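Quick note —
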Amino acid sequence: MIRIILFFWLMLHSLTGFTQMVIQAGVLDKETRQPLSFCGIRSKASGKSCISNEDGVFRLTGLPEKDSIMISYLGYKTRTLSVGWFKTHTTVYLEKSGIVIDEFVIHAGDDYLFEILANCRQKLRSAKQHPSKMYFTLETTYNNQAVEMLESYNNCLVSNCCTEDIHLKNGRIGLAMTDDNSYFVSLNTSQAVSYINITESNAYLPDIPLQFSRNKMKKNFKLTRLTTAEDQQNSVHIGFSPIENDGKAFRGELWIHKTSFGIQKIILEGDQLRTHPFLPMFPGTAVDSVGIKIVLNYDPEIPGGCLSNISFNYSLIFSKSENKRSIQTKGLMYFYDYDNPFILPYFDFDPSQNDYRKITFMPYNPSFWSNSEGLMYTEKQDEMISFLRKNGVLLNYNHHIINDIPVNEFIKLKAKFFEDNYVWWSDTSRLSLKNNRLNKDTLTAQQIYNPKLRSELSKLRAQIFLDIYPVGDSLSWFSATVFDVFNSFYKLEEINTTDCFLNIYFDLCEIERRKMEKQLSLLRSPDRAAIESVYQQTLASIDSLYDIYRKKVQTGFNQTELRKYNDHVFKETGIDNFKIFRVDETPANP
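Predicted structure written out below.
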């Protein structure tokens, strides 16, 4: 009996050690009790990381109880706490480190601070790039009214000096109409922020000292030493401002490690800027004033350093005729999971599309969003979502909510600046040559009756959207059939079976997608290669299917063959296109 009890105790003790915990806590300044935004939080055992939101709150999941986490913030002493500590504590207090001294100016003739910046620039320019996941969020107010909220996950390349090559994984949008019955959208904000390269100047953003050689730096900027930190960070805190206040250069602050010259933090600010990336969307509108603040924080745990996050705020004043409008936008780019990027969706997007339009097309994937690792919403963000739900449109926040208008309806009814270029398959809606705007020309009757020419004057294309993402230790997936209006055309005159011809093709592609889903579900241990193999086989089947289909039905002119396909679709999906489009009630073309 003693052995049995001992064995049971050991087994229970062993299982307890592998308990997975969820940590949620706030990080505050020990003296002021103010929240510390964007603190770095990292698990020592697993390497899992996150940052605190603007309220100083963070959340980490799937941590062993015996693990510990490090909480760090520039200018504060790093704290290391066991995961078990959070069973009874929900607030972490960080203590300031360093001594603030009276600032003094280093004149241009003194090379001390310029030498530090020159050495820092040299190190930055040799920095390694890391593939990384990126969480991006922004909020916009228009005349103090919430009008926009955007949240997305992306892949990118990130280093010490820049982020580039951004590719969308998934996203969601909230919009509300402004008081003058229009919409404000930040179409390319993620790209605009990615223009920041602190060692290379560009035409879209103001200058930064680190973009110049030491001599040119002296001609364009004055430097000031602000504080000293006699702690483990061993930092030099430098302020800079342009000599010519012409709106073409940032003022700001830098924190640089004294011995390694590694960069730790940068603040960039500017008012009444003349160099900026913002352009009005509509003619007759002018940008009267631009103010920008950008803060770049670095991850000290990555060898050689690497960008951890970029927070930004900008304010714009637009004018149209005599009316002026004020716009304030704030947001964040958070980089994590270095060298382990997302598997991007399998879909052939038109390369000219911006991320905003891609998000309006993407579906709501509840499994992806429930397993995502973005920042926790602040109280203000929760209030903003509630406002947009009540007074505007939420896209990809839920697939059931009444106020969430489906993508195609959203584009058609609410946002005239978007085109309906992709259409999701649905058993409750049908394609229409008129509504979906396939490229169409008027042709002569002689051309129409030429079967060979007919096949060359129409092209239909559907794609299978496939998104693969991890859930725990395995891979999950989401798929859908999408009609590609971009790459489809119908240059024939309409006949009584035209829309029937379009929709039967779309339905046939949906049947192939369902076959793919069944094959994927039979995979015992699905990995990326196995999933991709099944996907590629499905694409090949759809290509072959279309060639056979259009030849047999002669783009809808052969009603006998078209009816056979209609019967097959009805058997597989329950959809009778002949009945929906009243083919038997409409006289056929001769």
